Amino acid sequence: MITAVLFISFFIMLIIGMPIAICLGMSSALTVLVASATDPKFSMLDLSIIATNTYTGTAKFLLLAIPFFVLSGNIMARAGISTRLVNFIDDCVGHRKGGMAIVCVIVACFFGAISGSGPATVAALGAVLVPAMIESGFSAAFSEGLMATSSSIAIVIPPSIAFVVYSSIANTNVGEMFMAGIIPGILMGVALAIVVLFEANRKGLKPSHPKRSWKERWKSFREAFWGLLMPVIILGGIYGGIFTPTEAAAVSVVYGLIVGMFIYKEVKLKDLFGIMVDSAKTTGGIMLIVASASLFSYCCTLFGISQAAQALLAKVSGNQIVFLVIVNIIFLIAGCFIDANSAMYIFIPIMLPVALQLGYNPIAFGILATVNLAIGQVTPPVGVNLFVAMGLKIPKAVTEKKTGEEYHRVTLPMISKAVVPMIIACLVVLLLVTYVPGISLVFSK
User: Fold this and answer.
1) Is residue 22 part of a domain?
2) pLDDT value at 45 more than 80
3) What is the pTM of this model?
4) Domain count within the chain
């Protein structure tokens, strides 16, 4: 009965459209109340455990990295790094067939390494890249779908907030998680670039401009250099033992301020308050989810749900291959409905012990889970990146050569159809990192 209360209340609230943090927290609180009132074994429970467990779920030193990475990403976005990255990558590959869409994939990977957030990457780059892709001959639905899918790589390419969350749950080294995400992130980018080439050939598209000279490339590289250097400093510092991941996040904020205020000179003192407010809103949303998901996970453990699920999973799977198939299916379905951080807290405590029993590396398992949840950012009905991309205002002057303030609108069915080949490409990468875990461990110590 207690298990039914927890999950039925959770899914009812999810179906009626309540925020995921509220769904997790309210269903957990309701379950605690029902258990204390109906089961003598849990009669000592009271609402104080809710406060205790939500606090302990967020009071981890490692999680301090989240607000700093969010803040540094917002600073670099305001500093104009997105335009400079687009110009540099466009100078390098824009002369190829379907070049502007390939630019979208590459820039999304680089910007994801700065922001660590899929929706933030869509919002920062979409207004520039989607109109450019449409003008080069791609459909609006394909352009927005590619922008959304490319931006999902942001949670796989380090530094990634999802890796910080996973490491806090699984007690893994977040520096090793960051390094392990490099190859899978690049593979996802390559897979999407192949989809772009097929689409460009199918539509017979021409390059958007002639090949740039080395002088032009050098000029745009110098402009983008300080933004490109940020991930290098973070990963180099962590991997070289100069600072911890949490310290690296703080260093990234200081670096972002120096670049934004003194090198690019696009961030002014008056902008800092707005940047801080935006960062606080984003961080507050993430930490509320973490707190609620921690409570939900505690309830699963307290009422024996996690242990029963682990036993069932171990019994059903039998061997590593079957287990990984089941895990991928569960994560892919979960990614359609809940965000990556919530899914981590719900499923990792159940799945990871079984994975370890079967001899699967915990770092590789974290990459497997994150790639699954990255795909979930573009799978309907709750693919957050899709909705951010659909919310971009693309003037009809771009899509239909009209003037005025009319805007082109891509519907959910249109973009859902457009992302199918992109999701298939990402699933191929998922299979690779699942069954060849060495791909993820190339740079791990």
Assistant:
1) yes
2) no
3) 0.82
4) 1
